[in-house]
Design a protein that fits this description.
The protein has helices at 19-35, 50-58, 69-77, 92-104, 117-126, 150-162, 181-196, 213-219, 241-245, 248-251, and strands spanning 14-18, 39-40, 64-66, 82-88, 109-114, 132-137, 166-172, 204-207, 226-229, 259-270, 273-276, 291-292, 298-302, 307-310, 319-323, 336-340, 346-351. It is of the alpha/beta class. It has two domains: 5-15 and 254-351, Lyase, Ornithine Decarboxylase, Chain A, domain 1 (Beta Barrel), CATH 2.40.37; 19-236, Alpha-Beta Barrel (TIM Barrel), CATH 3.20.20. The chain is elongated and about 70 Å long. The two termini are 34 Å apart. It is an enzyme of class 4 (lyase).
Length: 355
Amino acid sequence: MSAVVFEAGYDFPLMVVRRDALEHNVATMAAFARDHGMELAPHVKTHLSREIAQLQLAAGAWGLTVADTRQARVARSFGARRIVVANQVVSPAGLGWAAAELAADPDFEFLSFADSVEGVDILARHAGERPFRVLVEMGHAGGRAGCRTLEEFLRVAAHAAETPGVEVAGVAGYEGGLPDAHHVRKYLDTLTEALEHLRVRGPILSVGGSQWFDVIGRELAAVQARILLRSGAYVSHDEGYYRERTPFNRIGGELRPALEVWAHVLSVPEPGLAVVGMGKRDAPYDEGLPIPRRDGVTVLKMQDQHTLLRADGLAPGDLVSFGISHPCTAFDKWRVLPLVDEDYRVVGTISTDFH
């Protein structure tokens, strides 16, 4: 019989991963993508965990998405045969690694983004035996990277098509920063128009997909391309930022929060105020503070090593559970997390590879 996490000798604070929620989320998004004719290349910058990545691949993920070539090396060690770097790659060391991997393994697929002639030229200078395949990125006003006009997109795409060592594979975009479904639909129309100008065999159209995958599933259903969703936060979901924004709120179904942080009450220095031993090094705080999983408790402030609560009835030594908001800044705070069942028995571990 597995030990209950609270009796297994762990120090606190401690973040745990709920196995039932994790497996449910992986299966749910795999089914959504499959049912809508899309493919998942989940963004593993969320967790950078071998165990979770292998769950996603086993559930049918087309490949893995990462943010840079350092993460690409990690994803490759997880067994990924297809990697999308959802970014412009300009690092000589990273491109040297990618060129060597492509030369060593003819089955390895490596995609990155390009949004400038200069970026294409950097790729070309570091190309090896096989060309670097790129998704030309189409952005939007006020967004992050990406070509801002169709004319600019076509100029970059034409340059990439003519440049030895580079090959155009399709179009990339990121819709996550847009304010509503109307703006997302307009942006997807722009991506589709850009794709129609490319003369690429078996083109790829890749989009973000954590907040608007329902709109993406409807709007891109008839597009003649491989639609790659780069969703990442779904895998653990949360009880704050993504709980409010998940498309399943609009279309039915659910994702389940898989992360909890447990911490001891250290002090009750005055009536109604409790201090717990959990701080900014233990739980995310950038997109909302942790969410107490106990009625009558409110988080007032997080500090480096402490969190101040407005609460009655707590005493030093009590354990308090918190949900998190924004999983993309949760996993990176831990190197090993207990995997627990519905009774909090430890059934495995989740390791991460952040540096």
